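User: tokens in, sequence out, please.
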């Protein structure tokens, strides 16, 4: 089977906006507020975790070696719902997102839209 594993590194601009939000300052960037809210809750609340929409685009997909099941999602938005597993390591300061992309995964076939 296959898993899609993603690691995100926030930009310095996002880190500053997150600090401003946590310090009670107004931030006009709605995307930053929503992203921060999701990041703080995604490993604790299933309803929040299920709200993640991804859009992955692989350059030269045909020669990438990725399984064909990933092809139907290349360059298209997808809600991952319960196929998403979230792992947070506060000590190391990272958040890992795993998406079960196995073709025989009943959950993936029903919930990724």
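Assistant: Sequence out:
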């Amino acid at each position: 089977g296959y898993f899609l594993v993603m690691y995100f590194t926030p930009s310095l601009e996002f880190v500053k906006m997150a600090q401003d939000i946590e310090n009670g300052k107004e931030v006009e960037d709605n995307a930053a507020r929503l992203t921060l809210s999701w990041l703080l809750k995604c490993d604790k609340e299933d309803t929040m975790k299920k709200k993640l929409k991804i859009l992955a685009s692989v350059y030269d997909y045909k020669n990438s070696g990725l399984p064909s099941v990933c092809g139907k999602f290349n360059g298209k938005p997808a809600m991952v719902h319960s196929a998403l597993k979230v792992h947070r390591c506060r000590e190391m300061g990272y958040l890992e997102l795993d998406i079960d992309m196995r073709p025989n995964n009943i959950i993936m076939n029903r919930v990724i839209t």
